[in-house]
Amino acid sequence: MAMESNYNEIHFDVMREIGTIGSGNAVTSLSSMLSHPIGITVPTVKTLEFSQVVDDMGGEEQMIVGLLLTLSGDVEGMIMFLLQKEFSYLMLNTLLGKNIENFEQIDDMGYSALKEISSIMAASYVNAISAMTGLTIKLSTPDITIDMLGAILSVPAIYYANISDKLIYIEGQFNSQGQTTPCHILMIPDEDSLNKIMIKLGIEI
Fold it and tell me: How many Å apart are CA 101 and CA 148, to the nearest integer?
């Protein structure tokens, strides 16, 4: 059953608030990890279809880093981070002290660092939900791939086709050392999990 069939703008407002709080937490965590301040613009939080995400990010053929984590426990679903090259290079060069300029230069240490960054950011969003609801949520180890955007999004689109045709799409502009880079997060809790979240927040379904 599609997410939008049972949820109205009030429910989506709650999801946007979770996304905003999670983004703030992520910036704090990344600043601590990288040992210098990182800023973020007020994130844009939308509810989109998978095809709209491709259009919003500039087309299915652009190369991108995709990191997928599954949610389990009281809330099930997934979080996917779509890191454009500028964000990936900035994070890796700051953390590892390198001068990475293309995806081919990312080695095993770089892949491990990107996984760690995504785990920290995912925990920021999950902790925001847990703090607001009291629900227990577990995160998997992230899976990482570098591929065209269309290919990366085809995996969750197929897997979640019977769960929802909508997802929570969060876009933020991160600022660090004079550079501004975009970061995109997709959140797809299943319908039962969304019901739990809304009930815990006292919102009528």
Answer: 18
Is the pLDDT reported for residue 172 higher than 50?
yes
The per-residue pLDDT for range 85-104, each reduced to its tens digit, is 888 888 888 888 888 888 88
Read off the tokens for 28. Answer: 């704090």
Q: In 3-state terms, what secondary structure has residue 169?
A: strand
On whether the CB atoms of residues 140 and 72 are closer than 8 A, the answer is yes
Judged by phi (left if over 0) then psi (alpha if -120 to 50, else beta), residue 60 lies in alpha
Alpha-helix runs per DSSP H in 63-168: 85-96, 108-133, 149-159
Task: Convert the pLDDT of each residue in 110-148 to its tens digit.
Answer: 999 899 988 988 898 889 889 989 999 999 999 999 999
What SS3 class is residue 66?
strand
Closest CA to 171 of 55, 5, 35: 55
Distance CA 134, CA 196 (A): 10
15-19, 35-39, 53-57, 146-150 — most confident range = 146-150
Are 120 and 139 a contacting pair, CB within 8 Å? no
Question: Could you tell me which of 201, 184, 21 has the C-alpha nearest to residue 88?
Answer: 184
Instruction: At 196, list the tokens.
Output: 């739990």
